[in-house]
Every structure is written in C-alpha cells, then in structure tokens.
Amino acid sequence: MNSTFDLNLTVDKLLDMKPDPIPEFVLLKEFKKLSPESREYQNAYDRVCSHIFVRKIEEGQNDRGFWPPFHGLSEDMIRKCLSYGLDKNHRCLKRVTGYILKVLNNEDKFDESEKQDNIRWWPEMFVPLVCAGMLAIIDGDSEALEIHRKCWAYFAETAFAKGYYDKEAESRAQNDYFGFYTKRTIPAFGYYNLLLLAPAAGESFLSDATDRALADYCMNQAENVYYVYNNRLSDFVPIDTAKKDSRDFCHWIRALSLVSKFKGWKKYEDSYFEWILKQRNEEGLWELPKKPNRYDFPLSDSWRTRKNRIIDSTIMVLRLLNHNKAY
Fold first, then answer.
1. 238 — alpha (psi -120 to 50), left (phi > 0) or beta?
2. Contact 89, 132 (CB under 8 A)
3. Which residue of 59, 106, 238, 302 sits 20 to 30 Å from the alpha carbon of 205, by its own alpha carbon?
4. How far is residue 76's CA from residue 99's CA, in Å, rounded to a whole number?
C-alpha cells in the first residue's frame, strides 16, 4: 500500500467528524479494535442494537427466523446486520442461524424455488450452497460447514487441477457427486463459493496451488463474479463524480474484497490499492456522489449531509484496505 497513506489517521479523522451511532461503532470495533469488555464498546453496541435500522430488521423477521424470500432478501438482511457490527449472538443472527441449520439438516426448506433444467438442482445443489455461504459469514467456526467446505473445495481442486480452469472437469465432478445431470453446474468463482472457500481463522480449505489459480482466474479471466459484479475485475473502476454514478465502483470493491481473502490476492494488492487511493477527494477521503444500492448503505442515519456520505463511503473502502471481513 502507498507508504504515504495512514489508515489509522484516516479512521481518527472520521471519528473526529462525530459519526452517527452505527458508523461510530464500526470504526471503534473493526479499526480501533476496542475491547468488547470495555464500557465504551458496550455502550456503543447498545446504541446500535436499539437503532431504528436494526429495529426495522427485527420487525421484518418472521417466526421461522428469516426474511422471505431467503434467496435475496434474507441474504441482504444478514449482510446488513454484519455491516452494522452486530455479532453472531444478536437475536436476529441467532434466529436466522437456527433456520439455516434446519435447512441444512433437511428439517426446513426455502419457500421459493427457481426452475432449472433438473428439478433437483435447486433443493439438493443450490440451496445448501447458499445456506452454507451465509452461515460462513455469520459463524465461520460452525461445525456444520465442514462437509460443505470439503464438497466445494473438491470441485475447485478438480476445476483447477491442470493449473487452469477446466469447466468440463468441474461439471463432471458435480454431476457425479450429486448423482444427477444438470447443465447448470456452479463455478468455483461464484459468490457463495468464495465465501465458503476463503481461508478462515488461519485455516485454508484449498491447496496453495488451487488458491492461487482461483484468485488468478477471478482477477484476470472471469467475465464476472456471480451475484456480485457483472464485469471483469482486471478493469480498474473510478468513482465517476461527473456522471454521479458509483455503482460499478461499489460492486467492484465488493468483488475485490471477496477475492482478497485468498492467498493468491497478495500479488495484486499493491496495484489495486494504489488505484483505489487515487479515488480520494481533496480531503483524503472517499466520497460517492450517490447512495449505492448495497447492504451497507446507509450506515449513517441519513445521506442528506455531505459529512455522512463521506463517512459511509470511506468506511466501505477502508474495510477492503484493512482486510476486514468480506460479505
């Protein structure tokens, strides 16, 4: 990273701007590493838990523990909770975790479905992957993840066994494993796969060679990252203040955050971070011209003031630069 950029000074600058309760807590928890045992942390967390944004999320959760439909709205609510700094023991996340575990244990199911070429694709292949991916970001240490990580790691190892991405080999492995044929197999570089296979707590689920090959493919060859970003990651994206449209920048940053969890990201980091640093405004902060349609906007109570736009925009970028958790 640019030697002239001081992340801690930037965080202090944001705190000096007197942010609203949610962005203040995010800065204290994720960047200042305030002890959860401290009174300051607990008071700040209480302000988040009682915030109207969180209360609305609680009110929308149904008796089974999710926000229908799960694929789409529940996923977004989970990301919102996590982006606000709520921990896995918060009642919203505990309740949705209970539902996810029931689905993974075939004790419950999604109410919605998608029509595919094989009727078994949705319940047997896709739904467990979605649930495992969401569980991985809520509670990455859950024992329920092991079988799913092993399964999708095997597909990734097969896909990149020759040092390059072999779609046919990946498809054969999935059709054989699940015991049915489908044209729509699921590539290793999709959103849920990246969540599930990213190293966690020092443990890698892929070999170093496959980790590097997957990161290289995402950065150089993939035309998109499914459910996250619709363009190539190799194309640097500016904050387009002239067009007042920063959607591509936001989704690009999110996709980079997912890939950045893999060891193979390291060789790309410096050049991408240099570009991202160039997108700062004259005050050395980031400022999106328009509120993006992303789970973490707004963090501040309102986006009517420039101060809040700068705080929320800068937190989004700092989470990538600081190697924070990716959603």
1. beta
2. no
3. 106
4. 16
3-class secondary structure, 102: helix
Task: Please compute Rg for the chain using Cα positions.
Answer: 20
- The whole-model pTM stands at 0.96
Q: Which helix (H) or strand (E) holds 52?
A: helix 52-60
What is the per-residue pLDDT for 216? 98
C-alpha 30/C-alpha 44 separation (Å) is 13
Q: Which residues contact 37 (CB under 8 A, 6 or more apart)?
A: none
Q: What is the mean pLDDT of residues 155-169?
A: 97
Q: How many Cβ atoms sit within 10 Å of the Cβ of residue 216? A: 21
CA-CA distance, 174 to 138, in Å (whole number)? 26
Find the length of the chain: 327
pLDDT in tens, 260-313: 999 999 999 999 999 999 999 999 999 999 999 999 999 999 999 999 999 999
- Choice between 82 and 202, residue whose per-residue pLDDT is larger: 82
Rounded Cα gap, residues 286 and 292, in angstroms: 14
Of the candidates 297, 285, 302, 286, the residue with the CA atom closest to the CA atom of residue 327: 297
Which run of H or of E encompasses 160?
A: none
